[in-house]
Write a structure and sequence with these properties.
The chain is of the alpha+beta class. Helices cover 52% and strands 12% of the residues. It has a domain of 204 residues: Alpha-Beta Complex (Aminoglycoside 3'-phosphotransferase, Chain: A, domain 2).
Length: 370
């Protein structure tokens, strides 16, 4: 029996034998860029999500820890009803199947959706000082390791570029600048993937949660509120602009620069409206400084993502993320062109990278369909 089938059999046995649940059916709900899988179980007219995180490849303990921290801050994360840490199985609240991206692509009002997401983010950042202290730091080592994904996987593996000594030195200097800028920002609770595929529309979802566990006499509780927040297990304590850039410079959907700047300025106002020393410190001296924080940590994030998307194909055989490389690269190009400290990197991207990306993606597409 394949390992994945064995894991599914184990999951079903856990539900029935250990939890006393006997779902009418269990079907795939989603997968992500890791080894985790998610299944939706249908039971007595309700649904819930079961996370399958194979031990040795995934550890559910960070997920459980960050769930606890975010729930205490009022964020609507999937409530954990049951956990088998040793076997890597979690029974979770089902936040439905409607993520922000689908609603935004369907033409829903982004002001309402982003308004909810920004309010939740502000609460996490302003109220989460003690929670952030429980997280590992987004330090020089982590930032550098993420930036290094670009030359290895995107420039080297995907574009097959040969870098000269001058190229390597220029890239290293740009990375050092970005690391310094990141470390200079106020440190807050950082989700690290706060974007449209990890935010769920739940405010119009009918109430109801799974019931029937051998350990519960009544329905499992939900914790309400829009948006539902997913994929937070890699949270760190780091730059305040990071999650804001993840949301407003989303790798899966884009908005005009002037609209983004308006949202960024509005978010700074929201932070400052919460009062107190922390809120004032997090907002920076003025709009220009806050926008700079947002822009430059966005470059670091998107450089990392370019490497990750390429790695997902060359290491893990997942080609779908290559379709998102052009938009991600556009964010890096746009910001590098706005900041003189990144001028050399901007020139390199225009001359060496932009012409090669369509050809590289075409090579992968031909190989994937062969």
């Amino acid at each position: 029996m394949p390992e994945t089938d064995a894991r599914l059999a184990l999951l079903k046995d856990w539900l029935s034998r250990d939890l006393g649940l006997h779902p009418a059916r269990v079907e795939p709900a989603s997968a992500d860029a890791s080894f985790r899988r998610y299944f939706r179980a249908f039971h007595n007219g309700s649904t819930f999500i079961v996370m399958d995180a194979p031990p040795g490849k995934e550890d559910v303990r960070p997920y459980l820890k960050v769930t606890r921290l975010l729930e205490a801050l009022g964020a609507h994360v999937p409530h954990v009803h049951e956990a088998d840490i040793a076997r890597g199985l979690l029974l979770l609240e089902d936040l439905g199947g409607t993520h922000y991206l689908s609603r935004l692509n369907a033409g829903d009002d982004p002001e309402r959706l982003y308004g909810d997401a920004l309010r939740v983010l502000a609460d996490i950042q302003v109220r989460g000082e003690e929670a952030a202290a429980e997280l590992p730091p987004y330090d020089r080592e982590v930032l550098g390791r993420e930036l290094a994904l670009l030359p290895e996987w995107f420039l080297g593996k995907h574009l097959a570029l040969e870098l000269s000594t001058a190229d390597t030195q220029m890239i290293a200097a740009a990375f050092e600048f970005l690391i310094g800028e990141a470390l200079a920002q106020p440190a807050v609770f950082v989700h690290r993937d706060y974007h449209s595929r990890n935010l769920m529309v739940v405010d119009d979802r009918p109430p109801g949660a799974p019931s029937g566990s051998a350990r519960h006499s009544g329905p499992y509780p939900g914790n309400g509120g829009n948006p539902g927040v997913l994929d937070f297990q890699d949270a760190l304590r780091g730059p305040i602009g990071y999650d804001l850039a993840s949301l407003l410079k989303d790798c899966y959907i884009s908005w005009p620069r002037e609209r983004v700047v308006g949202w960024v300025n509005g978010y700074r106002t929201l932070l400052r409206s919460k009062g107190g020393e922390a809120a004032g410190r997090l907002g920076g001296h003025d709009n220009a400084e806050f926008l700079r924080w947002f822009d430059l940590i966005g470059v670091q994030r998107h450089i990392k993502v370019l490497g990750i998307f390429a790695r997902l194909w060359y290491r893990d055989g997942k080609a779908g993320y290559l379709n998102d490389l052009p938009l991600t690269l556009d964010y890096v190009r746009d910001t590098c062109a706005r900041y003189t400290e990144l001028g050399d990197l901007a020139q390199f991207l225009e001359q060496r990278v932009v012409p090669e990306l369509p050809r590289a993606n075409a090579r992968v597409a031909a190989r994937a369909t062969a």
